[in-house]
Amino acid sequence: MSIMEQHSKRRRKHSQHEDQNPVPIDRISDLPESVICHILSFLRTKDSVRTSILARRWRYLWAYVLTLDLYCEEETVINRVLLLRKVQTLHTLRLNVDGCTEYGLETWIAFAITHGLQKLDLYLMDQEILPECLFTCKTLVDLRLHSCGPIPMDGPICLPRLKKLQLIRVEYEADESLPYLISCCPVLEELLVQLFTDMASCNVSSPTVKRLTVDFYFFDGDRAGCDMLEINTPALEYLKIAYSFSDHIKCGVATSLIEADISFHDEDDNLSARSLVEFVHVLCAVKCLTLDLSYFTEMIDSVLSGWTKSFRNLTKLKLTADCRFLLKFLENANNLEILHFSASCDEKKGWTEPPEQVPKCLLSHLRIIKVVKIEGKKHEFELIRYLLRNTRVLEKMDIEYAQCLASEEDISTLKKTISPFQRERGSAACEVAFAQFREEEVVEVEDE
Fold it and tell me: I need a surface site. Which of 284, 294, 410, 416 has the fewest CB within 10 A?
């Protein structure tokens, strides 16, 4: 037998032996180092460093990662991590510290800036002074400040490349601090402000901002608020105001606005009907609207009498309000296709006689309806019957009953009451489905 034949025979035997006793394959280690470093960038730095014990090749890979995520580390540990890095670029720094020296914080931020920092996520649980160099970073694109400050009201601030800014429960030197900071961000596109302390005036003004969230933070029974919320963002495409607690809301031109999500606080009774109407009018160009007006039942007549705008672009509406607000929207949103409604009214005031002329959206556009938190009240049945009877192109109606209807008997009574309405359907293709309502999970801003 030739040498080649013997070698081929041994190789076949070896192959058969491997098939019988497969050895786990380490596919990750076979990846290029750049790919491994990218994977490690999704870990906290502490966990990334732990991979150094896996093999000789892994020993220093963590030091080439372009992201540092330092959580509750001691100053000496942070200093050592920075010294051991082996690349000149630091793309992202996430820093969560509970107490550190002013010198230490300034050193870390300055180090990151000199290495081309683009994204900074800073959570300082017990820090009063932010380094001045932070506010003049020429490379920063994404900045998130959490539980720190104060934000200065004057002085050198220049963030020429900043596109995304999140200010979560930060302190401000004065009411002028926020508008001053925004004015120093000439290309800012996305802004989130979570108010933590009361302000006389919250002014958001920017010609470039496209996405804006203003959140009135609730903590220990107290809610941050402001006397005047003023928004002047002509390029705005998305607006969210969460649990507004303002006496006055003033909003400039918003013709670019596509989507809005607005809710008001249950104690926001100082907001006048005129201010509310003017604000609702600003939203008239949106395509998608989520609106909670459940706490304005006392001023509903004043609001409806001042309502003059139509919502011609509106195709999707999620409304929590008195039934009379719903009728007003149906009359003024001819192109509405999807409706999600939760009634917040009593039987005596909640439902009025429907309009003699059926709203155009019911005749030609409304395809999907979801009515939630149904408790089996008379006005709820009247509303469901009206919608089923008059919506001509309806494809589906979901009816979600409240959790207070716990017994099978209550649920059966609900279905039996609604069942005859289905024979009056304006759309033969419409399907009616029942389910129990479940509250949507609320995700806190800080848990991103």
Answer: 416
Q: What SS3 state is found at 229?
A: strand
Res. 266: pLDDT tops 80: no
**188 in Cβ contact with 165 (< 8 Å):** yes
Name the percent of the chain in helix, strand, coil, to the closest 5. Answer: 35, 25, 40
Are 141 and 161 spatial neighbours (Cβ–Cβ below 8 Å)? yes
How far lies 73's CA from each of 82, 95, 97, 316, 386, in Å? Answer: 12, 9, 7, 47, 61
Q: How far apart are CA 307 and CA 298, in angstroms?
A: 16
- The three-class DSSP label of residue 51 is helix
- Average pLDDT of the chain is 84
Element of type H or E holding 148? none
Of 99, 108, 104, the closest CA to residue 127 belongs to: 99
pLDDT at position 4: 41
For residue 42, is pLDDT > 90? no
* Residue-level pLDDT at 442: 44
Asked which of 109-113, 198-202, 239-243, 433-437 is least confident by mean pLDDT, the reply is 198-202
User: What pLDDT sits at residue 245?
Assistant: 66
Mean pLDDT, residues 13-42: 68
N-terminal to C-terminal alpha carbon distance within the chain? 69
Residue with tokens 């004043």: 302
Residue type for position 16: Q
C-alpha–C-alpha distance, residues 415 and 434, integer Å: 8
Peptide bond into 150 cis (omega under 30): yes
Q: Which residues contact 23 (CB under 8 A, 6 or more apart)?
A: none
- Phi, psi of 86, deg, nearest 5: -120, 10
DSSP calls for 260-311: EEEEE-TT-TTS-HHHHHHHHHHGGG-SEEEEE-TT-STTHHHHHHH-----
pLDDT of residue 303: 81
Two tokens at 42?
């999704």
- 227 touches 254 (CB < 8 A): no
Count of C-beta atoms within a 10 Å radius of residue 73: 19
